[in-house]
Amino acid sequence: MYFRQPIPLRPARDRLLDAAERVVVESGATHLTLDAVAKSAGVSKGGLLYHFPTKEALLEGMLARHFQDVDAEVAKRLESRAGGISGRARKGPGRTGKPSRADMFSERVRVLLEWHPERPAFGVAMVAASADNPEHMAVCRAQYRALLDEFAKLPGGFERTALVLLAVQGLLLAELLHLSPYTPEERSRLVKALQRAADQCRSTP
Amino acid sequence: MYFRQPIPLRPARDRLLDAAERVVVESGATHLTLDAVAKSAGVSKGGLLYHFPTKEALLEGMLARHFQDVDAEVAKRLESRAGGISGRARKGPGRTGKPSRADMFSERVRVLLEWHPERPAFGVAMVAASADNPEHMAVCRAQYRALLDEFAKLPGGFERTALVLLAVQGLLLAELLHLSPYTPEERSRLVKALQRAADQCRSTP
DNA sequence: GTCTATAGTCCGATAGAC
DNA sequence: GTCTATCGGACTATAGAC
After folding, report:
1. Could A169 and B174 be called an inter-chain contact, meaning their C-beta atoms sit closer than 8 Å?
2. CA distance B11 to B109
3. In this predicted model, what pLDDT tens digit does every residue of B27-47 receive, in sequence order?
4. For a FRET experiment, which of A57, B6, B34, B162 has its CA 20 to 30 Å from that of A113?
5. What's the whole-model pTM score?
């Protein structure tokens, strides 16, 4: 039991999805092939095809994990905040208050902006899926639409919140396409400005 | 001479680039193959390869034409404006005044936002180039960087202007990736709001 | 669960006729 | 300037051993 190896450190499925993201970031969506993914993950093509029987399944897996990860991270942060400060004190131990729409908005913007530098492949699933088949994006549009409808109810209204989301998206998509020309310093200035703008949507009408 | 046919209506090179953009929009960057482009343009693969000897050359041609088109359209609008109103009157016939930085900024934002609905493939060259080889994007980054450095000198300063450009870019890139969930009405509301924000960068410090 | 081997298709590019 | 024919390689996917 001593020094028991934490193997597998990460499920095989996730390691394969990591490899797929890596390939797209390093070589571009065109070179996302089963061979390349298998090689980058250190398994054979047959091993990859056991977990994802088709390339289509691999792309859907990439998209699904991306959305799950973002939602889970937002939920986790909201929960730890509610549990740690107001929620616990207000509702008693073990109960957490339902987060407000405004908190959900701020936290999501923060997650999107802060996540990227740590994980260069953040959101790359969307680029890969769009490159492979534009019809894949219907799911993403619906997801985005739902968020939009929810956040349009903030005091800032549709235009203000949509504009903030548009700018956040602009930064992330540009980075995904290797199109972003900003220095790290400039980027953090812009991130701060975006978070400020997001906070204004919560309160100012 | 009467009813002389305007043939070729459009140079073969441009028809091939149009076809390449069409393929990417309709099928995704992964399916941008020489076969698909040739078929969509109504020529054989050999005919395509006469004009673009490699796929690389085709992608570079797509990128180059995109930037040329945008720059030319901005210049044309500035010229017609200067010639039609102030420039001509101020400087006399045949002479036009050099457009101000603020005019260049507003006009470029307007071109980017207005062009897209008329030409669904607007900017799709960048998606295709990024998918094929991320290193292609160095040119695009440099181009974008130069604009940024120029427009940061506006009264609005770096952050304000960069945020506007980010939001414009966010809208365009989302549309290129089939990710934009906005109705036409919502889109024109956002476009108006963006143009208003751009105009404020010109004046308000 | 992971591997090798291989089938069948599609890719970019070349050569040469017209 | 555009075509057909074709090569060698890379692609997705299957079959079956271990």
Report:
1. yes
2. 29
3. 999 999 999 999 999 999 999
4. A57
5. 0.91
